[in-house]
Amino acid sequence: MSKYVATKQWLNMDWMLEELASSVPQIRNIVLLSSDGLCMAQNGTEGDAADRLAAACAGLQSLSAAIAVEFPHGDGRMKLVVVEVDGGFFYLMAAGAGAYLAVLADADVDAGLVGQRMRDLVARIGQHLSSPPRSDRQLP
């Protein structure tokens, strides 16, 4: 699959994030990313910022997975990370096979509502929020 075709398919997924963005007014940015840090869809974020956020999220996802294996009864996978910083909240949620949903929201957001809406989105369309592993044969 060429890079153009993959990018074109992912851009068509932006619409899936619109409902989440409009349901919680304090949400600033949403990025759907692959586990290796490629932006698959975005809302409220320009291209370079979405790419930077996706790359940073891949690192956080990897770190979270390393921590998750320390729990004896878990499966070692990251489900949800919430980070509070000056000015707002950051959420990273497993969204499908090899995909993650990242949300940046203002400080006055209802934190529970954001988590609930993210879970609702993943439950409804999680099968579409996936990124199959790439192989060398798929590169142009």
Describe the structure.
The protein has helices spanning 3-11, 15-23, 47-68, 111-125, and strands at residues 27-34, 39-43, 80-85, 88-96, 99-106. The chain is of the alpha+beta class and 140 residues long. A five-stranded antiparallel beta sheet has the order 2-1-5-4-3, sandwiched between helices. A hairpin with a 2-residue loop joins β3 (80-85) and β4. The longest helix has 22 residues, at 47-68. The protein is globular. The termini are close together. Mean pLDDT is 82; it is low at 1-11.
Can you identify the CATH superfamily?
Dynein light chain 2a, cytoplasmic
Q: How many domain units?
A: 1
**Could you spell the SSE succession in H and E letters?**
HHEEHEEEH
Widest sheet: strand ordering: 2-1-5-4-3
Evaluate the radius of gyration. Answer: 15 Å
- Total number of strands: 5
Helix/strand-derived class?
A: alpha+beta
Distance between the termini: 7 Å
- What is the name of the CATH architecture? 2-Layer Sandwich
Report on the biggest sheet. Answer: 5 strands, antiparallel
| Low-pLDDT segments, ≥5 res | 1-11
In CATH's first tier, which class applies? Alpha Beta
Strand content: 25-35%
> Treating each run of at least 4 consecutive H or I residues as one helix, how many helices?
4
- Provide the helix percentage: 25-40%
Average pLDDT over all residues: 82
Query: What spatial form do the alpha-carbon principal axes imply?
Result: globular
Question: In CATH terms, what is the fold-level topology?
Answer: Beta-Lactamase
